[in-house]
Amino acid sequence: MNQVVVVGVGMTRFGKQPERSLKELAREASRAALEDAGIPESAIEAAFVSNAMAGAIWRQESVRGQVFLSGTELAGIPMFNVENACASGSTAFHLACMSVLSGMYDTVLVLGVEKMIHPDKERTFRAFEGATDVESLLAFPGGGGRDRQSMFMDYYAEEARRHMELYGTPVEIFASIATKNSRHGALNPYAQYRVPQTVESVMASRVVSDPLRLLMCSPLSDGAAAAIVAREKTARRWTSRPVFVAGSVVLSALTGPASAGSEKKRSNVERAAERVYAQAGLGPRDLDVLEVHDAAAPGELWAYEQLGLCGPEEGAGLVESGDTALGGAVPVNPGGGLIARGHPVGATGLAQLAEIVWQLRGEAGERQVEGARTGLTQNAGGFLEGDSAAVSVHVLTR
């Protein structure tokens, strides 16, 4: 996939921004990516716009990208609206890469934007329900109840308890992951939370869904992130610091007849990782830096195991080794992850990609991973039949 190059990235600060509109956030991130690439809006031939919740929260449906980018020079170009739960942004990036590989376009914008902070929190909590099979929602642990904010946290908590029972993983390991990411987030000017935590402070925060504490969980956020991708020949005109897309995979949950057999025994992330490593011609030992989907801290632990950084019973030992922290052998979530950077659903996948681009270009400041040449992003969303409904994994190289 080395014909596809990321020539620019940009993002807004993530956080609670009730005074800002979706349009403002979208335009700021788009401008930042264009300025980073050093190209005018007129060079963009198409836009892939990711958003997951504007319909449910703000009643903006159908033409979201056209609305978010109205009044800019991008108005009038082909716009493709992409919704795929928490994997929306990385899915839009995948589609943009496909459009460039096909030869249809030379230079395209990928934009992810979400505004989750609403005066009526119940709207936001209800929006998450749409990332499940709503017909069977009542069968979900805690589903259909008033405490809707904990629906997906119930899923993470159930899987965390299972891991603890199988492998003896102590809850403090999850607190250590959250602590690490808070330290990383403190170094990221775009992060929602920039206060380093301790294992003790994480463990002392309120229980959301046992064993998960509040500070082990990603927050509701507003924000936007963007990337410009181009064909390699075109990219050479725009940048002297290209970052190549070496692998790009999107998969959905195995359900019904497709869930039978040995494939169901592997998670969607494991299946996607196998494919992306084959595309990129490398393996987990070749990775220098990763951004993974820690909607709750246990999710990062599973990512270590499912992406092949360690065996299925070795995640806790990897945390204790310090290898996944900045300065370690394979830093994970140097941008703070979803826990510290924030999780505006439609923008998260692109924020991960922006962080990896900065890392590979040596532009990550205090959180820079020295000598990083190969990075991976893992982004997952929704819930179907015991697994993520959508998964996307990308490998970038320089």
UniProtKB/TrEMBL annotation:
Gene3D superfamilies: 3.40.47.10
SUPFAM superfamilies per the UniProt record, alphabetical: Thiolase-like
InterPro entries noted in UniProt: Thiolase (IPR002155), Thiolase-like (IPR016039), Thiolase_C_2 (IPR055140), Thiolase_CS (IPR020613), Thiolase_N (IPR020616)
Domain of life according to the entry: Bacteria
Its EC number(s): 2.3.1.176
UniProt domain Thiolase C-terminal: residue ranges: 267-391
Keywords: Lipid transport, Lipid-binding, Transferase, Transport
Any one Gene Ontology molecular-function term assigned to this protein's record: lipid binding
Listed Pfam families: Thiolase_C_1, Thiolase_N
GO biological process: lipid transport
Residue span, Thiolase N-terminal domain: 4-232
PANTHER family named in the record: ACETYL-COA C-ACETYLTRANSFERASE (PTHR42870), NON-SPECIFIC LIPID-TRANSFER PROTEIN-LIKE 2 (PTHR42870:SF1)
Name used for this protein in its record: propanoyl-CoA C-acyltransferase
Organism of derivation: Kyrpidia tusciae (strain DSM 2912 / NBRC 15312 / T2)
Highest classification ranks of the organism: Bacteria, Bacillati, Bacillota, Bacilli, Bacillales
